[in-house]
Amino acid sequence: MATMRTDVVPEESSLAVQSELERRIAELGEWFHNIDLNGVHTAPRHFLGDFPRVKWKQIAPAIPQDLQGASVLDVGCNAGFYSVELRHRGAGRVVGLDVDDRYLNQARFVAETLGEEIEFQKCSVYEADNIPGQFDYVLFMGVFYHLRYPLYALDTLIKKVKGRLIFQTMVRGSMVSPELRDDYHFWNKEIFEHPDFPRMYFIEKNYAGDPTNWWIPNHGAVEAMLRSSGLEIESHPEAETWICRPAHVKKDGKYILDHELAGTL
Q1: What is the spatial distance between Cα 248 and Cα 44, in angstroms, rounded to a whole number?
Q2: Residue 22 and residue 15: Cα distance in Å, rounded?
Q3: For 57-111, what is each residue's pLDDT tens digit?
Q4: CA distance 224 to 58
Q5: Beta-strand relationship, 250-251 and 94-98
Q6: For the CA atoms of 78, 168, 260, 187, what is the dihedral angle to 10 degrees?
Q7: Cis peptide upstream of residue 132 (ω within 30 degrees of 0)
Q8: Is pLDDT above 60 for 194?
Q9: How far is 86 from 80, CA to CA, in rounded Å?
Q10: pTM exceeding the 0.85 threshold for the entire prediction
Q11: What CATH code is assigned to 67-177+184-262?
């Protein structure tokens, strides 16, 4: 006697599920993260291609494959692509922060759809130090250049880093870090003409149609700021990403930012 297979999903049912996913994705507005939700993509026509997976493919080998139990803070999480990827590697507590309700709603939908337990909170990077405890991995990706006060944000976020900071920013200008002296004479103006010298480009109005693109560093400026904030650069897996560990983030028991605010730096 023939038996009926119970593991085959009727085509009509599968199409209905896909149609419902597409409807929910559309309801949540425009997506910046293209995420595969069980075969349905959230931003299939992204102007950067399969973003951010194309970037993640270059960064992923620099992060341990087994993150069993590690804590993660994803600052500027957007729709949660990186949060999900680190959960897939076994991370324990994963917290995603963003200031945009649209992105947070998208991220919660992604986590729910994929069955991932991730906490998402509305919180600015400037207030991230109010979150209790530190994290094994802090992701600060695609946020720095959107901030009017970027170095303040970096110094604030360092207080949350117990293990590694994964830092990514748009970079323009020179892609080379120069050898820098400890000091320069007051009348040495020539160094500022050198394209490799650390510099930040200030955008008064818009860049790429976005008024929140405020400060865009060159390569030398990124590495100089990371070092100045007390971080040691461990790896540079792709052109815009650095993986760092806190090395000298405190002076006399106080964080650099606290010294700055107290006038004791």
Answers
A1: 43
A2: 10
A3: 999 999 999 999 999 999 999 999 999 999 999 999 999 999 999 999 999 999 9
A4: 23
A5: unpaired
A6: -140
A7: no
A8: yes
A9: 10
A10: yes
A11: 3.40.50.150
